[in-house]
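Section 5: illustrative case.
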């Protein structure tokens, strides 16, 4: 009796760990596939932290971003359905044995602010990530040791189909979101976001208290000074300055949204956010690396904005030479403005991408592959559906994605089961015919 209870407890514990790992891996992989360009940026941060700058600008970050998202999602589905009950636990343990010490290093040295395991959906500190991975490592060990206790949610007849379709689905989803934009936008510049509101500190909230310290050196020794006690002795040599957080307070989601005219250096932030009319923002963090395949459409959008009296501005972090080269290569006649590179990368996951604002609210966004054409821009924006906020809620989008995964999977599973029944009937018919011949 006691052995049965222990066995039951082991089975329950093992499968509870299995479902925990399944949820985490599936969610992590899906989030990476939902925002593949954001995953690319995070991979580039890792390569930079490891001193592999030569690999940062090549194809490797894109390949790794796609591979990690596909691998994690597929592994999560394997664990969820109980497919490959030996391989999946082994791979999970392998991953956690690698990730746990890696995140410990991240927590101690802090070369990157967060690991990016859940993208912008759930941002964890490096120490929180390490604690999470310790829990997952314990779960992975339990599942690996008790893999024989894992029960399957599908039969052996269709488990290959679930395994294959998981790969196909997540690859197609990653391709779609990379070519277009993330289906789920967790950044503060999502459609419907009021940029000005997200830059402000709500009433009653206390801002963070910051202090800038200065590092000076003298006779080979460095010393830290504050603004109130800077060294009066000229023999001290300035080394560096740092801004530290003395007291943590409320931090607005948007902190570095500043737009400066490239032509005359005027600040345009308040002008754009306060404009009652529509504003098109062509966002291109690096013009020298921007996709110019849609330049004809972008120029048409600019002509359309001039015709109807809408503001059109290209935001970039590139220098004057890159801007001049872009104008010469694309025939761009629109004005340019400068903004922070990280801000531009956060605003839209496309280089370039197009945003439509009104009164500082993000009305719509398009990647370079989905710029609206003359057939869509056939009337003033007030009369066009693309210039009005989408009514799709988060629940609607979740149901759509679940439908994209579950719907075809059920269809293929039903077709496979029907085919298996047909083959079984044929075998029985052939066997019966042969038996009759012998008789």
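Designed sequence:
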């Amino acid at each position: 009796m006691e052995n049965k209870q222990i066995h039951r407890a082991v089975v329950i514990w093992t499968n509870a760990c299995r479902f925990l790992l399944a949820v985490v891996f599936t969610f992590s992989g899906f989030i990476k596939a939902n925002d593949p360009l954001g995953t690319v940026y995070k991979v580039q941060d890792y390569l930079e932290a490891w001193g592999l700058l030569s690999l940062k600008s090549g194809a490797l970050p894109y390949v790794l971003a796609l591979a990690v998202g596909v691998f994690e999602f597929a592994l999560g589905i394997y664990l969820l359905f109980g497919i490959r009950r030996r391989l999946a636990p082994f791979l999970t343990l392998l991953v956690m044995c690698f990730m746990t010490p890696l995140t410990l290093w991240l927590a101690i040295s802090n070369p990157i602010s967060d690991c990016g395991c859940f993208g912008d959906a759930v941002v964890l500190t490096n120490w929180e990530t390490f604690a999470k991975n310790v829990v997952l490592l314990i779960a992975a060990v339990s599942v690996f040791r008790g893999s024989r206790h894992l029960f399957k949610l599908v039969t052996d007849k269709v488990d290959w189909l679930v395994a294959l379709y998981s790969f196909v689905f997540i690859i197609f989803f990653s391709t779609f979101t990379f070519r277009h934009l993330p289906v789920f936008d967790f950044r503060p510049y999502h459609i419907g976001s009021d940029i000005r509101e997200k830059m402000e500190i709500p009433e009653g909230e206390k801002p963070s208290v910051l202090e800038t310290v200065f590092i000076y050196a003298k006779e080979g020794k460095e010393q830290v000074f504050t603004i109130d006690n800077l060294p009066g002795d000229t023999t001290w040599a300035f080394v560096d300055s740092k801004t530290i957080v003395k007291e943590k307070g409320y931090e607005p989601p948007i902190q570095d949204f500043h737009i400066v005219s490239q032509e005359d250096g005027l600040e345009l932030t308040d002008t754009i956010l306060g404009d009652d009319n529509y504003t098109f923002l062509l966002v291109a963090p690096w013009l020298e690396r921007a996709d110019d395949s849609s330049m004809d459409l972008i120029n048409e959008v600019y002509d359309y904005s001039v015709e109807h009296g809408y503001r059109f501005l290209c935001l970039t972090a590139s220098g004057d030479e890159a801007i001049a080269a872009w104008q010469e290569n694309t025939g761009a006649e629109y004005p340019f403005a400068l903004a922070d590179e990280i801000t531009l990368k956060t605003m839209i996951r496309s280089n370039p991408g197009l945003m439509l604002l009104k009164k500082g609210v993000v009305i719509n966004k398009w990647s370079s592959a989905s710029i609206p054409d003359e057939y869509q821009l056939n009337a003033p924006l007030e009369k066009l559906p693309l210039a009005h906020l989408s009514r799709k809620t988060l629940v609607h989008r979740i149901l759509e994605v679940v439908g994209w995964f579950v719907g075809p999977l059920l269809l293929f599973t039903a077709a496979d089961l029907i085919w298996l029944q047909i083959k079984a009937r044929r075998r029985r018919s052939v066997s019966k015919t042969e038996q009759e011949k012998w008789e």
